[in-house]
Amino acid sequence: MSVVSMILVIIVAFLAGMEGILDEFQFHQPLVACTLIGLVTGNLTAGIILGGTLQMMALGWANIGAAVAPDAALASVASAIILVLSGQGVKGVSTAIAVAIPLAVAGLFLTMICRTLAVPMVHFMDAAAEKGNMKAIEFWQLAAIAMQGLRIAIPAACLLVIPSEVVANFLNSMPAWLTDGMAIGGGMVVAVGYAMVINMMATAEVWPFFAIGFCLAAVSDLTLIALGAIGISIALVYLKLSEAAASGGGVGNGGTGDPLGDILDDYE
Q1: CA dihedral over 105, 55, 14, 78, signed as positive or negative
Q2: pLDDT over 50 (residue 216)
Q3: Which helix or strand (DSSP H or E) is residue 80 part of?
Q4: φ, ψ of residue 64 in degrees (nearest 5)
Q5: How confident is the model at residue 195 (pLDDT cuts 50, 70, 90)?
Q6: Contacts of 193 (CB under 8 A, 6+ apart)
Q7: Alpha carbon distance 33, 30 (integer Å)
């Protein structure tokens, strides 16, 4: 890996760490982080496949109360770097996924350290606020955010220092029962992620759309772009019907009680 690529990877890792807290531009999401690392290292296809698979797992990762979810940012960045260093390309995606799960759990330790260090920073900001020192408040705010970025950037830099031959030999030395078992476990996590999302979205209004999408997905001639276009079209029709129902059961000349018919009449 060239020096420029290593610098770009560290920048992506830093942004992913910050976004784990800011949650604004979604750099911490596996699909984004792995794709960017694959792009800057010349492994775009493998990065997209790895990111998409990890994203399915991350669907079930959520902070609930005092329970902290596994670190998706560290799992994404570290597994993408390991995939690149292994030199296996798309063939190494399954192995990288197997490594990502324990890395996500290990990232909780770094999260605990950062949150512990953030406590005195809050007290420093409170003291600065009492004195009306806005510059000090901004400094500690930026320092806390930068600390979250370093939480991912430092492990990423450490991984980049390791020779690629060492990483490749380590991955190749892993027994098949271990890699296969972790890959199967990762697939189960994907199913759990889908189940949690469906459970949160399960309403009488949503189930018909789920059934329609399930059936359309079985049509092999439809591409992902076609399925996306169908989904957007159905969503627009649903929103329009909802607006019509909220306005009194129809649009146009008082409505006829048939929202879909009133909408079609407006286009005539």
Answers
A1: positive
A2: yes
A3: helix 72-86
A4: -120, 110
A5: confident
A6: 56, 57, 58, 59, 60, 61
A7: 5
User: How much is the mean pLDDT over the chain?
Assistant: 80
pLDDT higher than threshold 90 for residue 101: no
Calpha distance 21→115 (Å, rounded): 11
* CB-based burial label for 228 (10 Å; 0-12, 13-18, 19+): exposed
DSSP letters for 11-55: HHHHHHHHHHHH-SS-TTSHHHHHHHHHHHTT-HHHHHHHHHHHH
Q: How far apart are CA 248 and CA 253, in angstroms?
A: 12
φ/ψ region of 263 (left if φ > 0, alpha if ψ in -120 to 50, else beta) reads alpha
8 A C-beta contact, residue 217 and residue 231: no
User: What whole-number percentage of the chain has pLDDT above 70?
Assistant: 80
Phi, psi of 67 (to 5 degrees): -80, 125
Helix (H, G, I), strand (E, B) or coil at 56: helix
Helix (H, G, I), strand (E, B) or coil at 67: strand
Q: Is 249 left (phi over 0), alpha (psi -120 to 50) or beta?
A: left
Three-state secondary-structure class, residue 64? strand
CA 83/CA 118 separation, integer angstroms: 32
Task: Give the helix/strand (H/E) hosting 123.
Answer: helix 93-130
